[in-house]
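User: Hi! I'm working on a homework problem where we have to compare a predicted structure to a textbook description. Could you give me the structure for the chain below?
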Amino acid sequence: ALLWGAILLGCSCGPGPPSVSAAPLLTATYVLDDADGLGRQFDGIGAVSGGGATSRLLVNYQEPYRSQILDYLFKPNFGASLHILKVEIGGDGQSTDGTEPSHMHYENDENYFRGYEWWLMKEAKKRNPKIKLIGLPWTFPRWIGKGENWPYDYPDVTAYYIVSWILGAKQYHDLDIDYIGIWNERAFNSKYIKLLRYTLDKRGLEQVRIIASDRLWEPISFVLLIDSELHGVVDVIGAHYPGTKTVQNALLTEKKLWSSEDYSTFNDEVGAGCWARILNQNYVNGNMTSTIAWNLVASYYEELPFGRCGLMTAQEPWSGHYKVEAPIWITAHTTQFTQPGWSYLQVDGHLEGGGSFVALTDGLGNLTIIIETMTHNHSQCIRPPLPNFSVTPQRATFYLKGSFYMVKTLQVWHSRLGFESGNSSLFQQLNPLKVWRGRFSLDLDVDEVYTLTTLKTGQKCGYQEPPPPQPFPSNYKDDFNIRNPPFSEAPNFADQTGVFEYFVNASDPGDHVFTLRQVVVQRPITWVSDADQTISIIGNFQWVNMTVTCDIYIEKQHDGGVFIAGRVDNGGIYVRRTKGVFFWVFADGTYRVTRDLAGQEILMKGLSGVRDNAWHTLTLNIQGNSASGLLNGYPLWENVTVSKPSHGWAALGTRSFEFAQFDNFHVE
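Assistant: Happy to help. Predicted structure tokens:
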């Protein structure tokens, strides 16, 4: 309490009141001086939407809640106030928590209104016109590789495809893409990168910068050192999950070094501790001038891989509930008091008692210092493993020199992550700190973040509590009857292999003009092991007993097929191993009931009389350990024993990458 008094009263020109504990505080001094020049230029803090389908449920929120979530993420001096938004360039393939649609499913196809990343970039720009935009592919449509699972055999085709996305962003959405990546966490190809630069320049996109290779520091750093032409076209080396460290070759390139994907940690207090530590230490230890979190907002079913690994959580559009998690306010400690284009000061940045600090200036007299004292067990990120270190309470005395000597007061923003007490204090403004003859002291406890700044623009803003959480509706219908849908995908369906889009069935004068159609007809160039079947999930992972009904239309003759399913237990990167209760019908007039998406574990099979290019209604009923199926309202099979999985989502999909349509979906 005494130490707090010292801070709150601004008594920081001398060594505050005596400490109550017996052991004297560790004390150390640090000098901040710009007289000998500045450190590296700061490039901003950002987050990733995609890689994949991480913002899927966000778009379905009703107003005002959707706009509130976007304000917390992007609005300057409000919440996270992000400087950078990085999005997936959808490629129709599974990219972690789902698939995102490509702007070119097929070679002769272009559509710049699919998915939700265009919308998200526009919403970000609306709130912060200065926000930087990055595009990066995880997967590609198959035609890019002319049938091969590789995007570099025809680099001119791949470059054309990526540059089309950048041009489409400008033409249809007035969005200027600032940076473009190569292929997320996969091999890079020097010939392709050079051709991409050439194609960008030829299309008048000289201002678009190239990041490579969104994987590890090597081999890209080494290759840049030996290939001067490649060195000339790569602007930023982007590494993923670098553990705050860089390598000598990366430094020798003299390129900008970014942690172009990091964090990926459950967004509780430990996740906030991880984020606080790496936001500082990526620069202090690794000279990285930008850190980008995967992911922006956890807007996907929580039981998919890496549930709640977003800066905030918005996974219930049906209730309107969302949660502004601690990482949002940890972000604000840096983003609200710096801007891309500021410079780091040349300081060591390690605190004697453990923890770190960075100092940045705009070169116009403003100074921002961010201090973190995260302890080891309270700041472990999901990867890489964190070596042991210790942090103790300490007194830090700072001497401001050079152009900062005249600073008289600093605004103080403080967070304390409360692990023992369970109650955290996040991004609170304290009394300003008096600086006396360029000197001030601060008593630091463990697991704290301080921002000391000359800027007076910081704000902790908020809205009244959103509605309370509710499970997914236990009775849910969608007839897909929407003439001009705001998005290409139906609400709450989360595609896990393939892409399911609203479709206008012009040839059907009857009840099925507006349908949902699976549109990916070739296996994409994959990033992980997509299933051999397509599947979209929906609902509540805890559902046990359910009835799923859907009208289906097989378009592929002879060997086409579709399914509806319940108790579906998997998705995302694990989609190939998905189990559940699957009711299939095929164009050859047969049906099957299987325990798995792969269709290997057959529980029942027989004749159905279903044919292609005709509408049929399937009903799957699961109660306890028993399942039954109806075709067009009549029992087709019954009393099939189903024990595992015991619960899961509802789903629909196709036997292969094939066109098929669905209508009048109902789950109860």
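For your comparison, note the following. Confidence is low (pLDDT under 50) at residues 1-21. Residues 476-667 form a domain with the Jelly Rolls fold (CATH 2.60.120.560). Good luck with the assignment!
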